[in-house]
Amino acid sequence: MIDTHCHLADRRFDRDRAQVFERAHIAGVTHFIEIAHAPEIVPRAHALAREHPNLFLCVGVHPGEAAAVPADYLEVLRDHARHARVVAIGETGLDFYRNRAPREAQERWFRAQIALGDELGLPLVIHQRSALEETLAILEETRPAAGGVLHCFDDGLTAVGRARSLGFKLGIGGVVTYGHPALDDAVRDAPAEMLLLETDAPYLEPEPRTARRNEPALLGRVLARLAALRGWSAEETDRITGENARELFRLPIAGGALPPSGSA
Ligand SMILES: [Zn+2]
What we know:
The protein is of the alpha/beta class. It has a single domain (2-249), classed as TIM Barrel (Alpha-Beta Barrel), CATH 3.20.20. The chain contains 9 helices and 8 strands. The chain has helices spanning 17-27, 42-51, 73-81, 103-120, 132-142, 157-165, 181-189, 219-230, 234-249; strands at 2-6, 31-36, 55-59, 86-95, 124-129, 148-150, 168-172, 195-197. An 8-stranded parallel sheet has the order 1-2-3-4-5-6-7-8. The protein is globular, with a radius of gyration of 17 Å. The structure holds zinc ion (ZN). Residues 5, 7, 35, 91, 200 line the site of zinc ion (ZN).
């Protein structure tokens, strides 16, 4: 399995990060895309990438950070994004739920990162909360050339259709195990080539929510739920989502790694 969205540089992993990687390995997670979504996280994410050759990077400014980053950070971000291990820009988008930054600043950084993705030929990892319409409108206006993913997808079939016409994929994570009928329908009916697996660790632990901290080793629970919704085997689900991830992020890795039996 490929965990296409995790935050393993997060401080919540400081005391047992080596074991987190070890448990992920045992559970059949072969590759990670680490999201470095704020300036202070990027150096820690680079350090992780040096230690783990199977970890790729996505660098950007989360909408919640849009007011905190210095105005000249775009130049710094461009340099980070040129690093060989960087496969995407983000997570970027709009968050009108927490509203940690003024909407104007969020939109400015969102548009700047869309332009950066176009300039460097990198896909976008999109975060939106309570801002689906505004986020899709900007994407439909700008039409990012290298596509991207609506991370933590929790919307319905209409959003699937709009994402599809943008050439975007859907990040399927822990939320799919929470039992939302509209999301279940969307995941069941979405084109197979749109589906990606992600944890968003340390956030959004899949059911049963007992650990209070998500980690990539739990990705099998997401895979199992996706497999059940689609009527696919665990192996098929891993193969299809893995191909989709390699295609979108142009990961320089071969396919075919299967989770050990029982891990799903
Ligand atoms: Zn995230």
